[in-house]
Design brief:
5 strands
């Protein structure tokens, strides 16, 4: 990290660390909030984001069955947020793993040649941990505000039993970390977060800002908070995923949304290099406007995307109900079809549990959904038969 890249307008300070052949510096951000000049571009960005967010909130309030969206949207977020960190799992893989807790032939593919260390089962477990952390956070908000304890609890669940498990789950780091090739030298890092003593002070300031009043609009505050957490980088592993979890949870905690329907990882993943570069530019020269405009654009685009996907899922549900009604199906069949929106990967034992019927009855109902074109079988052989709802997966993936 070159200290010459940091200008006087940088919202922080550099501190010399360690004993290295050449001087090595870490960056310590100033406490939030910074002094911002909210110009016309920012206000226009906020207006567009608020409008899109409001439409999504209205859709969420009007839904008779919000689980139609909540469960699949959480899993889509888990896949995309984890993909930014290098996992290879897609949403079908996640649902298959979640259904059986094992690698299923034809569903969890071999890792790509570009990443020979990647393990499909381990990747799926890592993504499922993200789901569990997010679900835990949504429940925990009922009893605890977003604070350092809350964040540590999320982290403990995120890295349990997966890559990063040895990086003190649920505990802030006690050694220096850096952003860049972990096999290289710290002197060559792209960015070095605060040393541990300064990190502890930064975290106290961060927690205080999370839970006090501020004159900036909530979306601007969340953009500032996201930058600050990523810059402090308080864990040895999982910082990016935890930062994105906090963003999603604050939208709900601050009542910007009635339901957990908006996630920004898809936008960050599409613009991954800009995501990293713009946060670094804030640290180097105080380029808050560029970062906040990018963040607000993410809120706008992902709100619009969520509305489109939501309406497609609702339309699909109506088409299926109409199709099954015309076929004069029993009440069991629409119930099984509706369950596919929460989990579009199905086995016969799982259908048996959903419907509370015999294995044979569950098998017959699954076969009827296959004949109706709603399900298709995706594996063969003597093992567990696995079925998927391709239309649901197409909307989500």
């Amino acid at each position: 990290m070159n200290p010459e890249d940091f200008e006087d307008s940088s919202p922080g300070r550099l501190v010399l660390i360690g004993h290295h052949e050449k001087p090595c510096f870490a960056f310590v951000p100033n406490p939030l909030p910074p002094t911002l000049q909210l110009d016309t571009k920012i206000f226009n960005g906020m207006s567009e984001a608020a409008l899109a967010l409001g439409e999504l909130a209205g859709l969420g309030r009007s839904m008779a069955n919000p689980n139609l969206l909540i469960s699949p949207f959480i899993r889509r977020e888990a896949v995309l947020s984890s993909r930014i960190e290098g996992t290879q799992t897609n949403i079908a893989n996640l649902y298959a793993y979640e259904s059986e807790q094992l690698t299923l032939p034809g569903i969890l593919p071999s890792p790509p040649k570009s990443d020979p260390k990647s393990d499909p089962k381990s990747d799926a477990k890592e993504v499922l941990n993200y789901v569990r952390s997010l679900e835990y956070g949504l429940q925990r908000l009922e009893t605890l505000p977003v604070c350092l304890r809350f964040i540590r609890e999320l982290h403990e669940r995120l890295v349990e039993g997966v890559r990063g498990e040895n990086a003190t789950p649920g505990e802030f780091r006690r050694i220096q970390n850096w952003i860049g090739p972990q096999t290289g030298n710290m002197e060559d890092a792209r960015f070095i977060p605060p040393p541990v003593p300064e990190m502890s002070g930064s975290l106290r300031d961060f927690e205080a800002y999370l839970n006090r009043e501020c004159d900036y609009p909530p979306l601007i505050r969340i953009g500032l908070i996201h930058y600050q957490f990523e810059t402090i980088h308080p864990f040895l592993d999982g910082n990016g995923r935890i930062g994105r979890l906090i963003t999603s949870l604050l939208l709900l905690h601050w009542k910007l949304l009635p339901l957990p329907l908006l996630y920004l990882s898809a936008f960050f993943e599409r613009h991954r290099q800009d995501y990293y570069d713009l946060m670094l530019a804030v640290s180097q020269r105080g380029a808050w406007q560029d970062w906040l405009l990018f963040f607000l654009r993410g809120v706008t685009e992902q709100s619009q995307d969520a509305v489109i996907r939501s309406k497609k899922l609702q339309d699909l549900q109506l088409r299926w109900r109409d199709k099954l009604s015309q076929a004069r199906a029993s009440a069991l069949l629409p119930r099984l079809a509706d369950s596919l929106f929460e989990s579009p990967i199905l086995t016969i034992p799982k259908a048996q549990k959903i419907l509370n019927v015999t294995y044979r009855s569950a098998q017959q109902n699954v076969e009827k959904l296959v004949n109706a074109g709603i399900l298709e079988q995706v594996n063969s052989g003597s093992g567990t038969k696995l079925f998927r709802a391709p239309e649901v997966l197409d909307i989500l993936d």
